[in-house]
Structure formats: C-alpha cells, structure tokens
C-alpha cells in the first residue's frame, strides 16, 4: 500500500472505531448512568476538555504558523494555553453556579433581554462558522492529500463526509467518546514525531526537548535563525495576538459549555488543570514539526520563499513526515489524527450552531409555539445551511488555518468574554450595556477589513486576527459607561448573583 | 421610611467580606503571575535588544534552545499549569474553611 491508501485505511478505521465505541457506550449509558452524563473523574474530564479543544488549528495550523513565522508563532502557543488560566480563575466555577449552559441562555437570563439573547446567538453562530471554515480548510487539505486531488475537490468531498457522518451519527445518537478521541489524537501526533526525531538522529524519547538540537543545526548549517524575537512583527503585534487568543479562549462558546459534564464545581476546576496539561502536551510538540520540516527542506535544497512557504505551511506536519520517508502507516496515522480532530470539531460546532438556530432564533424568537417536529426540522435544515455557508467560504480560504481560527477568537474575545466577565463580576451591568458592548465588539472585530481603507490607524490598533487587545478593554469600558447611564438591572438578578453565584458560602 | 438602596453587591474590585474577598485575592494574585510572565517577559526581551542582557536572553541556551525561546515555548505553558494548580489548591482550602465557618454558625 502506498502512503495515501494507508491514510485512507487508518482514517476509516478511526472513524469506524468511534462509531462502534459510541454505540457500546450508548447501550451502557442508558443502564448505568443518570442525568448529567457519564462520570469520568478529573483526568477523564480533562481529556474531554482537551479533545473538545483539539482541532485542525492545533494539529496542523500551529506547526504551520511556527514554520512560517518562527518566534511570532509562539504567540499562538501561549495564547491558546494561557487562556485557560483566565477561564479557570475568572469564569469556570461562577458560570457553573449560575447554571446556564450555552452562551445565548446565559446572556438571556443574566441580562433579561430577548434582544441581547438574539444578538449573542447570532454572534455565537458567527464564531462557529468562522471556526468551521478553518477546520474545513484542514479537512480539504487532508482529503486532497489522501485522494491525490485538488484542494477544492478535497473540501467538497470533506464537507460531504462530515455532513453524512453527522446524519449517520445523529440518527444513531452516537455520543462521542472524548477520552478515546484525545488518546487517538495524542498518539497520532506524538508517535510520528518521535519516529521523526529518531530518524533524524535527535533525542527521540522526548522530541519536545529533542528539537533544540535541530534548531541549533539549522542555525549552524544553513544560517536560518528560527528564534529571532520580533523579527518581522512588532512587540505590540505579538502581545495583541497573544492577548486576543487568551480572551478568545475565555469566550469561546463551545469551551464555556464544557464545565457541565463533571458532577461538581471542584472536579470541574481540577479537570481544567488536566485539560490544560493534555493540551500543552500537543502544544509543546507542534514547534518540533515546524523545526524538523524547515531543517529537512534546507537539507534537500528546497528554497524557502514567502509564497511557497505559505502554501506549504498548513500541511507542514504531513510534508515533514513524507520528506523524512516515514512508513506509510505512520503518515496515515498523522493524517487520521488531524482529520479526526477537525472532523469532530466541525461536527460539534455544526450541531451546536444548528441547535442555536432552532432554539434561540426560531423557537424563542420567531415562533414560540413551534412543535417539537418543526424545531427538529429547523435544526436539520440549519446544519445543512451552516455547512453550505462554511463550504462556500472554505473553497477560497482567506488565510492560514491558524489565522482564520484567530479571527473567531478575536470575535469571541471582543464580545462574549466581556459579557461573561462583567455579567458575573459586576452586578450593575445591565441589558443596555450588554447590547452596546456587543455592537462595539463586533465593530472592533470587523474594523480592519471594513474600515481599514478609510481610517488606516484602525489597522494598526485593531488587526483582524488580534483586535482584542484594544477591543476587549474598549468593550468593557463601553459596557460600564452605558450600564451606569441607564437604569440598574432588576433587584432579583443582583440578589441571585450575590447569594447564589458568589455567596454560596456566606 | 424607606431604607437606602444597597448597591454594588458584586464587584470584582470591591469584593464583600468572607469567601468572595479571599477568592478575589487569589484571583488577582494569579492574574498578576499570568500577566507578568507572559507580557512582562516579552517586554524584557524587547527592551534588552542589542544590549548585553539581551544577548544573554537570546544566546544562553537551555535544552539547546535559546533562553527566550525556551521560556516562551516550553516554560510558559508549564507555568500556566502551575498557576492553575496553585489556584485550585488555594480555592479548595478557602472553600473548606468557609464551609466549616458556615456550618458552625448554624449550630
């Protein structure tokens, strides 16, 4: 078998195993487990958080951006891990005690406004769409690699595969086994890396440390300095990107709703620590792929020009494995890991997005008397519409996987993070503040693409992938100012915040 | 006679006494550790460019990685995990302390 048939085989095996395990889980679940899902413990909860988080951006985009931009790419590593600190200390236990699981539900309840809820739902759906575009790009690239076809065909086949998987798994009611999924992703990413390090003659037991020597070799043999700080970009750009990804992590709807599968607040908090550890395990490894890839290219005399590098960046992990001549099944494993990460992220996001369309837009806002069947149909139609929209954008992707993902984080950091932060930590925040904040946040996110031509200054302060460093504080100020200028929120909500969310131990 | 309205009961910058104040103290301490190490270090690298200290930061190696690259790429994610562990241990302790206090008040 050649590389691509191996990867098709491994990918099919992985997808099939998820369906089988899901079915087994389902029959056990209905007998043994009650409301709230399966009790998995702190480590299991952590693995679930990590697998929910892992996407094409982590497994393909991260290595790609570091390969392309060296030290600047580390802003992604820091942003995507440091955000969990914010999430844990500022939001995790309080949101859980608040008791509303999705972003529109929280906003609707806390700010007591259907309009704010509607806006939050639209923003959450927009975040899902942007995030999905990045995943679709990843899926398209891997499909193109597996079947040896063009990228556009790859995206179309990939989209068909995701939607049909959703239809099948939806009909079977397959619950995703996220611990197994994390294990598959982690093994699929790290084993090829160890093999690669060994093949190149570096310390392979912990390739996360072994790539140091490759970096030194790269500098010595080819005078390529990968580590130069702030070479092509400024300090402000580095910090803005890092901060944006951090607050975005704290505001990403599918991450926020992750704290309810663990039975109590204490376990939820500790599973964040485990989740962060599992995520860091992948993030310590991603730069190694970038460095090995660059070294192999230099050794094979491939010239690194901005254009070709940008085209190769998102598939650098796969390309590196191929260049090093790794066995076909190992390359297949790597492709399968990245594909299943992207696949399940898309499936999760499309399902949540469709549920939001059906529940928050259709049922709560447009037709409160809709029957169960009508809502189901809207949800199914919503999935298709969302998938079609994402496919349309992904056919001509506007950037690298990591960059597209960063825009979703910027939108989340500019809108949802301030809403949750003030909603939980300041009882005076009211619906007018929330709506003004959301409008400001959306404006900050789209400032560069929409107004950059008219007001060039905006481009430097609100770059599209990193607008939250200036955006999030601005939104918080707007929310505070508007809230203070308008009537206070109802006394019941303020009492609820004081007594239930913060005063449970008074 | 109407009582004066009680305002701003929940405010991150002015926490009420008891559990919330303890919790806010640890939150601010963790955020300080998070901010200084993430952004403070980058400022340091930037400010020291071209100086002796700067070359110390970028030429000194650990695990064959230049110090600044190692700090950002490997130590910082570990530091975030450490911060989360410290936070959880501390919050577990104050939760226990305040639960005991509350139970006694009902005796």
TrEMBL record, chain A:
NAD found in the keyword field: no
Keyword terms, alphabetized: Cell membrane, Membrane, Transmembrane, Transmembrane helix
Keyword Transmembrane helix applies: yes
Lineage top rank: taxon: Bacteria
TM ranges: 6-23, 43-68, 74-92, 118-143, 155-173, 180-197, 235-256, 268-286, 329-357, 378-395, 401-425, 432-455, 461-485
Family under the similarity heading: Belongs to the sodium:solute symporter (SSF) (TC 2.A.21) family.
NCBIfam families listed in its UniProt record: Na_symport_lg
Protein's recorded name: VC_2705 family sodium/solute symporter
Source species: Geomonas oryzisoli
From TrEMBL, chain B:
Top-level division of the source organism's lineage: Bacteria
Pfam families in the record: DUF4212
Keywords, comma-separated and alphabetical: Membrane, Transmembrane, Transmembrane helix
Positions in coiled-coil regions: none
InterPro entries on file: Na_symporter_ssu
Residues covered by the Sodium symporter small subunit domain: 17-99
TM segment ranges: 24-47, 67-91
Signal peptide: none
Protein name: DUF4212 domain-containing protein
Species name: Geomonas oryzisoli
């Amino acid at each position: 078998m050649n590389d691509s048939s191996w990867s098709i085989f491994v990918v099919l095996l992985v997808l099939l195993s998820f369906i089988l395990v899901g079915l087994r889980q389902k029959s056990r679940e209905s007998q043994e487990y009650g409301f709230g899902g399966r009790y998995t413990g702190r480590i299991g909860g952590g693995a679930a958080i990590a697998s929910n988080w892992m996407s094409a951006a982590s497994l393909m985009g991260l290595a790609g951006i570091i390969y392309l931009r060296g030290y600047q790419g580390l802003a992604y590593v820091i942003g995507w891990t440091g955000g969990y600190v914010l999430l844990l200390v500022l939001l995790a236990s309080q949101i859980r005690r608040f008791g509303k699981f999705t972003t529109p539900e929280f906003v609707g309840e806390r700010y007591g406004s259907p309009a704010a809820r509607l806006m939050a739902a639209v923003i959450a759906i927009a975040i899902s769409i942007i995030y999905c575009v990045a995943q679709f790009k990843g899926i398209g690239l891997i499909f193109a690699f597996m079947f040896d076809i063009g990228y556009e065909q790859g995206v179309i086949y990939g989209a068909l595969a995701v939607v049909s998987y959703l239809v099948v798994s939806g009909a079977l009611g397959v619950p995703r086994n996220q611990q197994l999924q994390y294990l598959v992703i982690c093994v699929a990413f790290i084993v090829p890396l160890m093999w690669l390090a060994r093949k190149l003659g570096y310390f392979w037991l912990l390739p996360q440390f072994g790539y140091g020597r490759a970096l030194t070799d790269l500098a010595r043999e080819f005078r390529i300095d990968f580590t130069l700080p702030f070479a092509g970009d400024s300090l402000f750009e580095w910090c803005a990107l890092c901060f944006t990804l951090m607050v975005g992590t704290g505001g990403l709807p599918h991450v926020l709703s992750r704290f309810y599968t663990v039975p109590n607040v204490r376990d939820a908090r500790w599973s964040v620590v485990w989740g962060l550890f599992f995520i860091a395990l992948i993030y310590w490894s991603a730069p190694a792929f970038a460095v090995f890839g660059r070294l192999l290219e230099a050794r094979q005399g491939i010239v690194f020009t901005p254009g070709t590098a940008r085209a190769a960046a998102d598939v650098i992990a796969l390309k590196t494995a191929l260049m090093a001549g790794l066995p076909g099944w190992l390359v297949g494993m790597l492709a399968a890991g990245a594909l299943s990460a992207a696949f399940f992220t898309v499936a999760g996001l499309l399902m949540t997005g469709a549920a939001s369309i059906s529940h928050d837009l259709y049922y709560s806002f447009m037709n409160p008397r809709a029957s169960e069947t009508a809502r189901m149909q809207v949800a199914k139609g919503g999935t298709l519409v969302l998938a079609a929209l994402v496919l349309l954008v992904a056919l001509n992707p506007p950037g690298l996987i990591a960059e597209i993902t960063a825009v979703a984080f910027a939108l989340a950091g500019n809108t949802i993070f301030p809403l949750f932060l003030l909603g939980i930590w300041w009882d005076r925040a009211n619906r007018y503040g929330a709506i003004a904040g959301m409008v400001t946040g959306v404006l900050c996110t789209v400032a560069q693409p929409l107004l950059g031509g008219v007001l060039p200054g905006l481009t430097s302060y609100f770059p599209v992938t990193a607008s939250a460093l200036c955006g999030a504080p601005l939104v918080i100020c707007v929310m505070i100012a508007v809230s203070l200028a308008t009537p206070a929120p109802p006394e019941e909500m303020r009492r609820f915040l004081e007594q239930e969310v913060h005063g449970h131990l008074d | 006679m109407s009582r004066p309205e009680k305002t701003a009961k929940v405010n991150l910058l002015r926490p009420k006494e008891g559990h919330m104040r303890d919790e806010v103290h640890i939150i601010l301490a963790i955020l300080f550790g998070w901010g200084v190490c993430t952004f403070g270090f980058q400022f340091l690298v930037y400010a020291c460019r071209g100086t002796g200290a700067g070359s110390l930061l970028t030429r000194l190696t650990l695990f064959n990685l230049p110090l600044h690259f190692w700090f950002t790429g490997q130590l910082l994610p570990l530091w975030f995990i450490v911060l989360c562990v410290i936070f959880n241990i501390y919050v577990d302790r104050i939760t226990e302390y305040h639960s005991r206090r509350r139970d006694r008040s009902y005796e």
